[in-house]
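Quarterly update from the structural biology core.
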Amino acid sequence: MTTRGAGEGYSGAKAAEIVGITYRQLDYWARTDLVRPSLEDARGSGTRRRYSYRDLLELKVIKTLLDAGIRLETVREVFTYLREHLGEDVTRANLVIQGSRSVLIQTDGELIDLVKKGQGVLNVLPLAGVKEEVDARIVELRPAPGEGAVGEATVTRLASGG
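Predicted structure, tokenized:
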């Protein structure tokens, strides 16, 4: 974890708003190590978490998986695998979800069974759309001047890998 200036990143409340989850969910996910803020973690009463743009993408992927009907326990397993094998960019692949079974489709067409159990309706979940959703929400919820969150120009720069 790297600590940066307080003017960078997103507060917990703003991150939750951008991703479309409750602050309570965000807090639980941080306390249980599903997604910890990479810019600044809470260090006791009165300190604030600061989430990076990448953290927002990870949070949105998790929310998307939960919205697709995947149990939180399974999401943890899937997301651990995604982090370990996709590294920095969890949005560069697609997931095929069948009940509680998930298959990762990498860009070269390789299929990887993530969780070997369950049956159900087949859903294709393109993770690249997560990035566009987060970018649009950031622009929509553009912070007031002086709030210290990343502005639209920075979103564009981050989105282009800069």
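The mean pLDDT is 73.
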